Amino acid sequence: MERRGPVSRLVHIVPIVLTLLLGAVAPAHADERLVLVVSANSKIEQLDSLEVRKLFLGLTVTHNGYRLRPLLNEADPHVKEVFLQNVVSMSDITYDRHLLGLALKQGRTQPVVFHDIQSLIASLASDPNAVSVAWLKDVEHDPRVKVLRILWHD
Amino acid sequence: MSFLALLRLLLFASATLAWSSQACAQHEHEHSSSEFDIFLSAEALRASDHVQRGDDDPWFAADVVFALTKHQFRIFGEYFVSAEEHDLERFQVGYEFVPETTLWLGRFHQPGSAWNTEHHHGRYLQTAITRPSIEFWEDQHGLIPQHITGALLESRIAVGQEAAIQFSSGIGAGPALTPDGYEPIDLVDNNPGHHRLSITARLAYLPEYVGATSAGFLFGHHELDVRDPKVAQALIAGRANLDVFGAYADWNRDPWRLIAAAYYVRFDPAQASMRESFIAGYAQIEHQLAFRLTAFGRTENSARMRQSRFVAMFDDQDGDFDITVRRNAAGLRWDFARRQALSIELSRVDALTYRANEIRAQWSAAVP
To answer: A57, B209, B279, B329: least buried by Cβ within 10 Å?
Structure first.
């Protein structure tokens, strides 16, 4: 009977271990849903994809005569990655240069960046014209904000 | 209080407000906001022949941009400081009538320039280190007036489901023609006057309303008051017209970008025998690589510039600028940290009076 050496056994074991590890990691993002959120007091009922993209690309978007204010959620790297890929459709470097370009060209204000979800929710709740994106699990039970729609799901 | 003193006060107040508001941006009022950015750069140059560091190659430069937005009103300024100069390049007060249609009053960059309306004075957003010669600023002995004081209308109108038409037009007082080149209106210093009408415009098509790709036509008509006695004598007139017709394309599709422009420039003094024209253009291609590297190459070319007496009027005796007839440049940029980049550029320059090889290195950044 042929006996397998330690290297041969490793060749068989490593893919199995990797598969198990990946399987263990994947569920962390499996139920994630990126949603569009506004203050619970906001009169905004819905924004279409073009309006959302215009807003986060620094262009003027109004609702009932009021200018909407985008707030950037960078509370974790994955939310930023999903936002860049699915909302503004730009790489990190291109998006940053685009916003800087608008500031340089016309003095347009860049969106305020939040690195902490609680600060983001507090700021969102205090301004009926503010709009942001967040994981559904972070905002669905918070009475201060309301979810407009799902922008992306796993 | 004089107009200049009032303007300085307004400038100081708006810059201070923009800076202080930026510091507490997270608490800003829902209907007002501010912006305060500094674009920094430092550059080193080595060149063959007798080429020396020029006004376009300051060893250090800072471009300060500040803005305040309140409802539909905006105040916006750009102050450029380098080892050689400091100047309030732009100062505009605007009102946005409807989303993406704004009327500005003040000193602005004329919209008939493909490069300058995109990059302005900051170096960080400009992938290449050098700018095309035909897009030089007035104080670099640029051949086309770039700063106008008056009214600027900017508008972007949706066309169909995704596309847009962008229209910009500026009208106001343009630069006078002096022994040192063009002299635009200075907002923070004295003006000897002699500024006449400039009308400029851009009409562009954007395949995507929110996209960065656009292509269109550029126009400029400048009535010049000649303040150089020698030039006035040569022209047998104290006035001349300069007309600029151009076309451009700025194509962006990650990881590629192409920006190209061509200008037909017609100089028309009162003396008919002095009328002449020339053509100048450039194309720059950029490609984003791995490790946040960007490779770029640019070619500039012209026709009838070398024979032009108008172009020769801008020839400088102290040699601190080049009127480039032809240039081929290539380089690499590395965005090594957030909002910081290192760039290197090699170029072969064919100027009015010499040829040279140049190598430049630059650090550029945007703060915050």
So the answer is: B279
- Closest residue of A to B77, CA-based? A107
Which pLDDT value is given to residue A108? 87
Q: Does some domain include residue A92?
A: yes
Q: How far apart are CA A4 and CA A1, in angstroms?
A: 10
- 8 Å CB contact of A101 and B26: no
Q: What is the CATH number of the domain that holds A96?
A: 3.40.190.10
Band the pLDDT of B207: cuts 50, 70, 90. very high
Its domain, for residue B254, covers 3-367
Does A10 map to a domain? no
Handedness of CA A98, A100, A105, A108 (dihedral sign): positive
Q: Tell me if B294 sits within 8 A of B331, measured CB to CB.
A: no
ipTM of the prediction greater than 0.85, yes or no: no
Instruction: Supply the pLDDT for residue A18.
Output: 57
Q: Are A11 and A118 in contact (CB under 8 A)?
A: no
Residue range of the domain that includes A102: 31-153
Q: Does A57 contact B at CB distance below 8 Å? A: yes
Residue at A52 is within a domain: yes
* Cβ distance of B339 and A96 shorter than 8 Å: yes
For residue A66, the distance in angstroms to the closest alpha carbon of chain B comes to 8
Q: Is residue A15 part of a domain?
A: no
What letters, b where the CB count within 10 A reaches 16 and e where it falls short, cover A121-142? bebbbebbbbbbbbbbebbeeb
Check A104 against B39: CB less than 8 A apart. Answer: yes
Is the whole model's pTM more than 0.90, yes or no? no
- Whether B328 has a pLDDT exceeding 70, the answer reads yes
| Structural domains in chain A (count) | 1
CATH number of the domain within which B162 lies: 2.40.160.10
Inform me whether the C-beta atom of residue B124 falls under 8 Å from chain A C-beta atoms: yes
Give pLDDT, residue B320: 61
